[in-house]
Amino acid sequence: xxxxxxxxxxxxxxxxxxxxxxxxxxxxxxxxxxxxxxxxxxxxxxxxxxxxxxxxxxxxxxxxxxxxxxxxxxxxxxxxxxxxxxxxxxxxxxxxxxxxxxxxxxxxxxxxxxxxxxxxxxxxxxxxxxxxxxxxxxxxxxxxxxxxxxxxxxxxxxxxxxxxxxxxxxxxxxxxxxxxxxxxxxxxxxxxxxxxxxxxxxxxxxxxxxxxxxxxxxxxxxxxxxxxxxxxxxxxxxxxxxxxxxxxxxxxxxxxxxxxxxxxxxxxxxxxxxxxxxxxxxxxxxxxxxxxxxxxxxxxxxxxxxxx
Length: 308
Ligand SMILES: O=C(O)CCC(=O)C(=O)O
Ligand SMILES: [Fe+2]
Hints:
This protein is an alpha+beta fold. It has helices spanning 17-29, 42-53, 58-69, 82-88, 92-102, 174-179, 183-189, 230-234, 239-254; strands spanning 12-13, 35-36, 39-40, 76-80, 107-109, 119-121, 138-141, 153-160, 169-173, 257-259, 265-270, 274-278, 295-302. Strands 1, 4, 5, 6, 8, 11 and 13 form a 7-stranded mixed β-sheet that branches. Strands 7-12-9-10 form a 4-stranded antiparallel β-sheet. α1 (17-29) packs across α4 (82-88), α1 (17-29) crosses α5 and α7 (183-189) packs across α9 (239-254). The mean pLDDT is 95. 2-oxoglutaric acid is lined by residues 121, 132, 138, 143, 156, 169, 276, 278, 296. 2-oxoglutaric acid binds at residues 121, 132, 138, 143, 156, 169, 276, 278, 296.
């Protein structure tokens, strides 16, 4: 189906005020979630669905969200829950509501077993600037690129944007970028010649994939464009493979969109389709108190109905 009217072209979903009010009440009523292994428990999913199903207007939002993430949409969506965060805060009640909304897309899960379901990505002035908690440019990547079964969707909830106004999210349609490459570059990217990073203490993302091809031969909704720009500098690729990956990186940047997440925004990325990253935070983070620095929460989703 097409994208319903409440969704605009650039992937943002704004909720009507009455729906926000209903969701605030639901957020106050949702029970704590339970996990079954790394996955949100079926019993929780059923209870959360039942609550959301009591709000008929929500059905359209869930449809918009799924349409945006699918083949006819941009492959990402931002659900704007800022007014709901204003009412509920960004702790348990809000996180339950956000989890319930995401469970309408696929099953929330926790590949990093050491961390909570929603993993904090704060701002760490001593971290490598290009890493998730660093203050620099976090170049285009997909999450868990080196697992044989990466999460189908990656979600980022904004608790606090960079108070200095930077740190925009960047998104790019990796399938479209690949189509703009030459057949020779695509052939190089299809070779099992790429590596990136370490793989440990991860659940339910398959096994370590090393080396991997950037392009697989799977249908677009099942395969991935296994790319992270970090492999250009960190992985010691052969010259011709590195060159093809650089061309892909350039096309990803040429096709990028960017926007700054606001408090209460939930960005969901279909990893089969889009890569994501972040612009640098503003200079001057030392002058911002740690408790006021940018903070996101990250969660992954598994589409359990997908063949693999
Ligand atoms: O900081 C961000 O906006 C993105 C972080 C990210 O993509 C990651 O940690 O994987
Ligand atoms: Fe990421």
